[in-house]
Specification:
The chain has 293 residues and is α/β, with parallel strands linked by helices. 42% of the residues lie in helices and 17% in strands. The two termini are 35 Å apart.
């Protein structure tokens, strides 16, 4: 049943895109399929050369709630997101990457769960490997700043009041990765804890058609940028967890000594799994088979 009561706030979805036309079409359709109908879509074409802009112009001519912007020269995803957010009119904003998907209840579940005492609301997600999917960050909980500084508990996309994003300066365009992690952390620094619901409503595409964090050289640089920017707020445990995240993204082996040192900082099960897979090839092959099938 569509959720669009008279008092339902406008939610603006921002989406940067570049040269991924077929994936973009899937992402756009997932926005149109939302049960919550008071939604508009702001898409920034970041200098595509594959017919994306022509598709978007046709789409905007058909749909009054679609707004299209174009960077003649590529400015990057963060700059494109900021353009969309500044142009949006919604009380709330939320993002969608052009290779990912919303499930139909995505926006309705976040709006229903939103509470102004928290910086923002987010949800668990499905990580899609193609033949298999894995549910991540599935617990429902308030997320403290201390938790967030160890690991991006807020996931890759959130529902947040638009003015709050503008108040903290939007996405940091100097970051090469971890831009979402940085923005969510700055929102929490200013507005307090956030809240995550257990109901998954976002699908992350990791089928080989997209670059994702693990093994991506930019991710290591992004984590270093995050550490340099926020280390003054970190506890000893936060710094230890950040070190583990860097080791994992560099695909380095987690030594037994480092694993033992890491135990007091928490996230022990994830560290133990990585210790096994990074040191024993048969464990790594088993996990790859299990996740990607």
């Amino acid at each position: 049943m569509p959720l669009n009561k008279p008092h339902s706030p406008l939610v603006s979805v921002y989406m940067p895109t570049k040269n991924r036309l077929e994936l973009l079409k899937r992402a756009v359709e997932s926005v149109f399929a939302q049960s919550y109908t008071n939604v508009d879509l702001h898409i920034v074409d970041d200098g595509s050369t594959d017919g994306t802009y022509e598709y978007l112009l046709a789409l905007a001519s058909e749909k009054a709630n679609v707004h299209v912007y174009r960077n003649e020269k590529s400015l990057g995803a963060c700059a494109s997101r900021n353009i969309a957010i500044k142009s949006a009119k919604g009380e709330f904003v939320t993002g969608l990457d052009d290779d990912d998907l919303f499930l139909p209840h995505r926006i309705s579940s976040l709006v229903e769960a939103y509470d102004d005492q928290y910086a923002f609301c987010c949800s668990s997600m499905w990580w899609d490997y193609g033949r298999k999917q894995r549910l991540i960050d599935a617990s429902e909980q308030a997320i403290s700043l201390e938790q967030q500084l160890s690991y991006n508990e807020a996931t890759s996309q959130v529902l947040v009041k638009r003015h709050r994003v503008l108040d903290v300066g939007g996405f940091d365009e100097s970051f090469v990765a971890c831009q979402d992690y940085d923005l969510w952390t700055r929102l929490m620094l200013k507005y307090g804890s956030s809240y995550r619901i257990a109901n998954p409503s976002y699908i992350i595409n990791d089928t080989g058609s997209s670059e994702r964090m693990i093994g991506n050289p930019k991710s290591v640089q992004g984590y270093q940028q995050f550490f340099d920017k926020h280390h003054m707020h970190m506890t000893k445990a936060n710094k230890s967890n950040q070190r583990f995240m860097t080791i994992r993204r560099e695909r380095k082996a987690l030594t037994l000594i480092e694993f033992i040192r890491q135990i007091p900082a928490g996230h022990v099960s994830a560290k133990f799994r990585y210790f096994l897979s990074s040191n024993f090839g048969w464990v790594r092959k088993f996990r790859q088979f299990y996740t990607k099938g």
